[in-house]
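Box 3.1 — From sequence to structure: Cathepsin L
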Amino acid sequence: MLLSLVTLSLSMLFARCTSTLTSYEDAIQNGVYNMSQPTETLFQMFKDTHERKYDSLSEEEKRRQIFADNIRYINKHNAKYAIKESTYYLGINQFTDMTYEEFAKQFANLQNEDIWTGNVSIFLPPENYPAPSSVDWRQKGYVTQVKDQGKCGSCWSFGVTGTIEGQLARQTGRLVPLSEQQLIDCSRRYGNKGCKGGYTGRTLQYVSDQPGIEGEADYPYRAGDSYPCSFTKSKVRAIIRGYYTVNPGEKNLEIVTASVGPISVSMYVNRNFQHYHGGIFYDPSCAKTSIGRHAVLVVGFGSSPSNYWLVKNSWSYMWGEAGYIRMAKNRNNICGIASKAVFPRM
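Predicted structure (token representation):
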């Protein structure tokens, strides 16, 4: 009952954050910020909201200039949204005082996994599988609350815990938040670099070899990579036997998401993704204008008002639609979302 109430509450929060904006006035006043206010006012609100304290006056002035440039960029894009030249809109979030290059270096540093290694199998989709028009694994209790990786470039660990959490819930009926910090602290020999990036497939192999992963309650997240490994076998909450990869293609991702559960995927993220606030993200230039890749969790898909992937991120509720993004589906594999997908074999 408690799980159902939590899931319902999160779904209602998501619904409140996915309302359609119909005019530029709506766009500039969406959320806690009224974008028509002076930049200095918005910057002060931003600093208060995100508790920003800069080391020096020169650093603060630098961040104010970057913030002002991003505000101009956001307003220019939202004007296009208001006249239906874009399907999504942008807004102020915790990254608005960062350049895209700074953002990408810290948050789009997923390592390129061209060769899958270890105890890996290729997912074979069921023959003639009739995929539904929509799926939302949050409603089944397979998805934990939105997490926050903080200033640590550890998206790879959240992609791994998210897909294991889903399969553990499917297997046992219990939704248990798992430990990203264990993966950061203990899997370096698999090529992971802590807050400087890592691999999803190799990390699933680590969990398989360990064997197992602790819960977040016993091994909490610290948003850093300078801590020794303190894995305790007696506290393991999930054990896996290897992992699956999914052949590239949106149809394959659709089938595996519908038939299996939440799937960890790797995708390109550009400047618009950095500032995303709502709507269905469709940007044909995404891969070309991206510096790096990011690990996220596909938790479903839908078809209204148009086809989209429902994607859970690890940047807190302050980003996107209460921590989620709807990515355009069946639109030429936008941002490479269906190119590299993995999930555990339980």
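Summary of the box: The mean pLDDT is 91.
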